[in-house]
Structure formats: structure tokens, C-alpha cells
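Order emerges. For instance:

***
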Amino acid sequence: MNDLTNRQSGLLFGSYCADALSLGVHWIYDANELAQKHGRITHYKAPGADSYHPHKQAGDQGHVGDQSLCLLQFLTKEKKWDASSFMNDWLEMWPNYNDYVDGATKTTLTNVQNLPDKTQGGSDSVEIAGPARIAPLVAFLINSSESEVVKAAVEQTVLTHRSKEAEESATFLAKAGFQLIHGANLLDTLNRTAPEWALKSANSVLSENAVDAIAKLGPACSISSALPSILYLALKHEDDIETAFIENAIAGGDNCARGLVLGMLLGAANGMASIPNHWVENLKSQTDLVYFLNQS
């Protein structure tokens, strides 16, 4: 595996593995409760009947990860990016979807009902979930220009999250993902591409452990909390994917969406071999990801 393919694979598997690792403890906001009930999260866990994902199994993706998989399957099938065509596939997900449906999705589904152009009905959500889905696009457009990757990432994001915060995050992640896949250094890339406000927040808690740092930054879904928390983890554990993903999971809150983004950044920076093999092997979407990578 050459370096480009190694980083491309790392970006994709990193995103989905970090999401899956957090799924079993998703949206638990009391870190003490999480630690007492679940301990240190080193393996995939089923979320359980009393969770937000009662029908999910160990190694599955969360509800945002499922939307990212929808994007991956679209790109595998169509072999091109087209926002309007993808929106049709995204809309077809929901009538029989058997998991949590978030607010941005509900609002978008309502908004598009009377619109001839379904790409214009996105909610005004400022949550990280919208830009968090873009790993397949960055991996698919590996031979495109950075500006084309940014354009596609923003187009994907605003289908459901039409806020300046979501667009800013999508732009950052597309630039960072593209540069990292093509061999850039992680710290230099983050300092060059990340929003200054988010870097400043992340650096302010860099000396603290993950549970305390993310509690201060905010463990919730909004970009104002999630993006600094992601940057904190990436800066703190730049070359240690295993620790970074575990720390993200045990910090609680919206660890799944954070994981999708954190996994992109660290996976692209460190490559496929940096991801523990048991996470790769036990990922339910592994076959889809391998097929996608072989086609791209």
C-alpha cells in the first residue's frame, strides 16, 4: 500500500471506527456514570435497549455515520458526486429507517416537501453532524483539486445544515483532509486550516485530561463545543489513534459525531496501519469500505 492509499484508507476507516467505538456509550453526558457502567471503552459495544440506538449492534455506525454510509454507497454506485442525485438517495433513507432521527433531519424532511429543488431545504442547524459525514467525499475526490473537494464538502453539508458555522467546519475539514491525505503534517495542517477560535479554545485546555477538557469545552452536538473538543483530542494525541478514540468515547456527549471527524483527521495523518486491527475487522461496514476503496 503506497502512502497516498494508506492515508486515504486511514481517513475512511478512522472516521467509521471512531464512530462505532463511541456508539455503545453515545449521548451519555455524565462522565462518572459512563465510567461506572462501562469502564474504559476499548472494544465495540451494543448501545442497549435503554439507549438512543436500541436496535444497533456492536460495530454498527451511529445515525450520522449511517448518513455518511449512504454517501459512500452513493459514490460507489454513481462514481461521481452530484448533490441533487445524492439528495434523492438521502431522502430514501428515512421512510424505513430504524434508528434515531435527529432534529436537523426532521426539519430538512419537512422543508423539502414543497420544494421543487430538494437541495435547498436544509435546516439552519449549527451541529457538527452535517460536516462530520464527508469522509467518503474526501476519499473519493483524492485526485481532484483542493477547491473541488471543498466545494463538494460544502454542497453535501448544506443539504441538511445551512448555517455559516456548518459551512466553515466543512471547509476546514475538506482542506485538512485533502492536505493530510496528500502527506501534510498534522499539526501544521491544523494550525493552517482550522478556525482560529476553535484552535484557541482547544489549546486553552491542552494540559487537562479528556473528560475534564471536553466537559469545559462542551460535550454537546453544536460546532461551538464539538470542534474545539475534536481539535483538543487531535492535538493531544496526534500520533496515537487508539488513545484518542478511546478518550473521545469516554468523554461522553456526542462522541459519535466527534469521532467521525476525529477519525478522519488522525486516520489521514497516521494511515491505515495506525488503527487497531480488531476495530477494523469488527466494523460492520468493513466490506462496504473495502469495496469503495478498491473502486476509487
